[in-house]
Amino acid sequence: MTDQLLMTQAALIYGAAPDLDFAALRAALNHALASSGSPALEDSPMSSDQFALFRNARVHVSIALHRTPLPARGLQHALAAAATRSKRCDFERILDQSHAHVIVSVGDGPTPLPLEPVTAAPAAIKLALLHKAITLIHDRAPADALHMCTNDLFHSAAEIEGAAAQAIAPALVMHPLAADEPSRAIRLCNSEHLIGSVLEIHEIPNRVPVSMQLTLANTLVTQHMSGALPLDDGDRLEDAVGMGLTVHRARPTAQAPSGRIVVTFDSEAPQRAPRWDSAAFHPHRGYSALSSAIAPAAETDEWTPDSASGYGARIAASAENRSSNWMIWVGIGLFLWIGLPLLDIPQKIIHATFSDQLVGPGIGETGNNRP
């Protein structure tokens, strides 16, 4: 949760060692940074044919090519997670047949082990850099699978490709934590780094599979990040017969000190508060488990440029051009599965704006600036 270390590290898994052009990767990363007004990354003397360290005064990106399988130590939880198993991809076979992997890391300061205190960059910038580096590498050297330390889950090659159009893909950040039985609820750990509060989905019908639950969660977060869906207290999403979802802002808890956004399915049964598993989500600690004696200072967002295309401006601009078709992204899957299409949302019921495009914020922008 929010008191846990945000691990911005990942491993791309390969059957054979890929051929990487580090200079081209750095140029592509700098092109993305330029669009947000962030300082360019420079190459480090530490770089070699197998390792690249790109850096500026505030952040660094390291890319390490290993001509060995990804060590299996510490991957058991990711392989056993319900979200990983729902992808219907044989990740264990991919690991067994792997002969190479590429570790991508993003951190504060110009080096992985600074000699003096550094100021932490905003989480959104580090997540966007990690996401961009992963998708750029995969575009040039397609991987067989991806393991994210951030959410300690495995992701398929198709997921990496599908996420390439987004600046930050929520599916590569959030970890769904299921409530204890008999409740049907999930808490999206790490969602607070994307939307400012922890997202929870309650009263999930029994016939909704895990994959469709994740589709809904990713859609809600992506649309909120793009400024298309406020998720304000009291908002309601429903179809013509009155079935749907209700949004409310819940009080902070020890596990969610920044507050919670609770989205609840309609249910004839009395609502009951979920009882969460006592074993809270802990992110993967990293492949080398190195720890620095110097802790970073408090996070600052002085590096985030002001932009008219930011979250607040998109909310205001889209309010003049309302549309009610955002749920088509999940209508094909989740809501057709359970008979809740939610494609015809009355304007008088939810005073929100909706986008035709499923996109995330640019590097340097974040949707967590809401109160």
The low-confidence runs, each spanning 5 or more residues with pLDDT under 50, are 290-362, 364-371
The arrangement of helices and strands along the chain is EHEEEHHHEHEEHEEHEHEEEHH
Taking the alpha carbons of the first and last residues, their distance comes to: 19 Å
Helical segment tally? 10
Looking at this protein, list some descriptive labels.
371 residues, alpha+beta, disordered C terminus, globular, 10 helices, 6-stranded mixed β-sheet, 13 strands
Describe the overall structure.
- By secondary structure, the protein is of the alpha+beta class.
- The chain is 25% helix and 18% strand.
- It has ten helices and 13 strands.
- The strands form two sheets. Strands 2-3-4-5-1-6-7 form a seven-stranded antiparallel sheet. It has a six-stranded mixed sheet with strand order 8-9-10-13-12-11.
- Strand 6 and strand 7 form a beta hairpin.
- Helix 1 packs across helix 5, helix 5 crosses helix 6 and helix 8 runs antiparallel to helix 10.
- It is globular.
- The two termini are 19 Å apart.
Sum this structure up briefly.
By secondary structure, this protein is of the alpha+beta class.
Topology:
Elements: E1 9-14, H1 22-34, E2 42-43, E3 51-55, E4 59-66, H2 76-80, H3 82-85, H4 91-96, E5 100-108, H5 123-140, E6 145-148, E7 153-156, H6 157-163, E8 175-178, E9 186-189, H7 192-195, E10 198-202, H8 210-225, E11 236-238, E12 244-250, E13 260-265, H9 311-318, H10 328-338
Parallel strand pairs: 10-13
Antiparallel strand pairs: 1-5, 1-6, 2-3, 3-4, 4-5, 6-7, 8-9, 9-10, 11-12, 12-13
Helix pairs in contact: 1-5, 5-6, 8-10
